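Incident log, structure service

09:12 report received: a user says their structure output differs between two submissions of the same chain.
09:20 pulled the input from the user's history:
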Amino acid sequence: MTASIDDIAKQMLMLLPEDGTPVLNRVMPVMLSKALEAKVDQDQYFAARDILLKEGRVGVQRGQGGQVFLLPEATKKKPAPEIPGEPWAESQLMLPLKKYLEGSFRKGLDLPDDAACIVQDTSAMGDRLGRWARPDYIVVSAMNFRIVPGAQLDVHSFELKTEAGATDLAVYEALAQTRFTHFGHLVLHLPNGSKNETRLVDIEKQCDRHGIGLIRIRDPKDMDSFEILLDPERKDTLSAIVEGFLDRRLTDQQREKIRNVIRRSHS
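09:34 re-ran on a clean worker, output below:
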């Protein structure tokens, strides 16, 4: 009996300790073979692990044979079923926002073909005790200049709020996240005719005052209903702070993708 790479990946998620305790790379294939009742060799194991790593579901530790550990998937904002007639929950809005960031928003950045662009769910990453230190998503882009030597790294943070979350406090939450990023965005779900639509004018003024971008979602099912009301201003966040922020939120493969772009600027 042989197991597919997808089967191995699914079984790995079941076997990894939920508390994030790492498991040695040489031990995990043995555990998988027993659980699947099929031989899992190193190549199959690493192929399955790399899929989970790319998806941001596991992390790795290098050295001494290497280890793999489960990221806090259980605490992430998982999609909840939609209830007809009920307001959208924040967990339901996460996937539509991801699709928008990977599609229209990325396209709007007008990045060159050789640039790197990463969309990462960071809603469950970072210091639990840090106030407003967990954006719902970040978008990280790296590009080389065509004429002037050098590369540019931009980090955007996105704070997502439901219809009921359209308050001034949401603006300050998005602003606080620019402690670690270059651009801050507030994303509001406000359907046409929402009773909270009257708050939009004041929220827009507050965002404009603090240089925060504002994106309105009218219908999460329709990507064309995502509307940028305000563009953000770039913050002068220290590179060391941005580096530390990204180091805890990107996978090894994502970090290497960014580094490869920046390396080319020095060659």
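09:41 both user submissions now match this output. Likely a transient worker issue. Closing.
09:42 reviewer note: Residues 90-108 form the longest helix (19 residues). The helical segments are 5-15, 28-36, 42-54, 90-108, 168-176, 200-210, 239-247, 252-264.
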